[in-house]
Fold Olfactory receptor.
Amino acid sequence: MERPNGTFPTFFILLPITNIAWLQKFLFVFVFFFYLLNIIGNLTILSLVIKDLNLHSPMYFLLASLSFVDMCISSSTVPKMMVGFWVQNYISLKGCFSQMFFFHVFGCTEGVIIAVMGFDRYIAICHALRYVNIMTKAACIQLVLGSWSVCLSITSMHVVMSSRLPFCNGYIVKHFFCDIKPVIKLACADTHVNEFIVAAVTGIFSTVAFVMLMLSYCFIMKHLVNIRSSEGRSKAFSTCSSHFIIVILYYGTAICIYLGPASENTIEKDRVAAMIFTVITPALNPLIYTLRNKDIRKSLRQLVSRSVAWSVRVRVQ
């Protein structure tokens, strides 16, 4: 299915996760369920944080930012992936690089916001008396906008470098979306510089964010050891446990996908890791916070109660 030498594609074909017909149908239902769970769960958190004045705090502002990014990162890849379960999945060159851009902007921003959330927990636990003065509304907005700005710059560099490559080694992307590594494999030019820059920049950036997270948690653990009250220690630990689970889910899959050369074997493994990264993890994040956070659960119960009361009044009228 490759084009003759010397011709350049005007589109790419994205491959499904599997070519087994019955498994494609099962995966469509599976992916659709998690995508629906993702949208409903994260929209619920956004609504709760916006409407409930008790959730107007830095912690929940960052959580709402994470929920928004989770919806965006899935929406940039999942709808197109679901199309591929039923028909041959064509995507134009502009569409491919647009998808690549948005996926990496949202993925990068999520990593930074998760690191910022770790810093927020460090300030809340280790410097509780100064928390209000440090994590002001202006500071939170600056941190989130800074996250977006840095990720926009890094992603733009990667996408521009990839889009300038000549593509004449076929038009079949061995992935369910346009990611950098499988796309540049189709280039008929030396891509070692591209691969090195992707690995180096992503590696350095991820390492810095991860080290910041680990330092935050090291200081938190040191502080917890000094807390004599078991109740106080338990309360402090509960505020971090949900976030730490998300850290493992995010950085575990991100490391699997982007650290390493773009070989045939790694791309196959990357497809599985990317499935977790784009479908499962964004859907689990709101569940993790909802089930383990008392304030979110309380606000959700109040929202449900108000909705039920409103529906009863409408029926009576």
Remarks:
- Residues 11-305 form a domain with the Rhopdopsin 7-helix transmembrane proteins fold (CATH 1.20.1070.10).
- Strands lie at 11-14, 89-92, 172-173.
